[in-house]
Amino acid sequence: MSTSDSQLNSTHLLRFIFDRLKTFIAIGVGAAVLSSAVALMIEEQFKSTVIMFATPQHSIGEQFYEEIKRNDLLEYGETEDAERLLQILNSDRIRTRIIQKYDLWLHYDIDQSQPGAQALLGKEYNSNVDARLTRYGSIEVSVLDRDPKRAADMANDIAFLADSVANRLRNDRAGEALGYAKSSLEQVQQEITTMEDELGQLYGLGVYDFATQIEGLNEQYATAIAKGLPGNAEKIRKQMAEISNYANQFNKLSNLIEAAYEREAILKKRFELMKLDAETQMPSAFVVDYAAPADKKSKPIRWLIVVMSVASTLVFALLALLAAENLKDSSAA
Questions:
Q1: Residue 102 counted as domain residue
Q2: Are 164 and 284 in contact (CB under 8 A)?
Q3: Which of 87, 104, 108, 271 has the least CB density, counted as fewest CB within 10 Å?
């Protein structure tokens, strides 16, 4: 198409609009009045927002019982930590508790007995509650509601429940590990008790420290022989022979119980570490800004609704009139 043809088409379109200017004005005014009435009927909604940063989910017990600290509980979480917290914020656990606490079935006017009620409630909840990552690495939880105080309370409760759910998950996981650590510790302690009882029996037979006793008796035996005391020497020899009968048992128990004591010390440390993880509540996020009741509505933006309605109506009217004009010209031809 040439430049002159384009100019002619543009001129023709402007001429077409000018010739029907009153019609377009009437349509525009009608659309404005109608869209204004509809916009005024739309319920106002207020938005409240919580801003938080995720914290890394490190072992708390490790910070107290390990000599080398590999992690810092006070540092900000990475993207992976934020995404994990985001999953918790959008979880059914939090959604269910918010629905129950604020009776959203009644608030959103949804009949629980109607088919698809759960899906309808979920759709309404998701349209009013949103949690997302920001470009600064923080998490924004926003709630829309016709009551500004309710919106702020819901947003703050969602942030609080994220801590509660995260701690519950961590404590449950640590609790399972604590159970294994406890059973292992009790098993080792039972083994130690058994070996201590067996050593107690050897102590009762006069065997206290086989190596030290044999060394002392050898010296006494040599001294008795050197002094020409065969009676004493024979008595000492019999004593050495008697305790030698328990040498293997004593040495075996001594080695086993020493290793058991070392295992008990390690397991006690692990048990205390896991017990702390299982019982301690730690924040899963640093809340930067808590939600406050908004003093200005967020939705609807009425002027934008009116402008968009009038513009779309005029465009549709123009296309309809152009189509009618073309049909008229075709019929005439």
A1: yes
A2: no
A3: 87
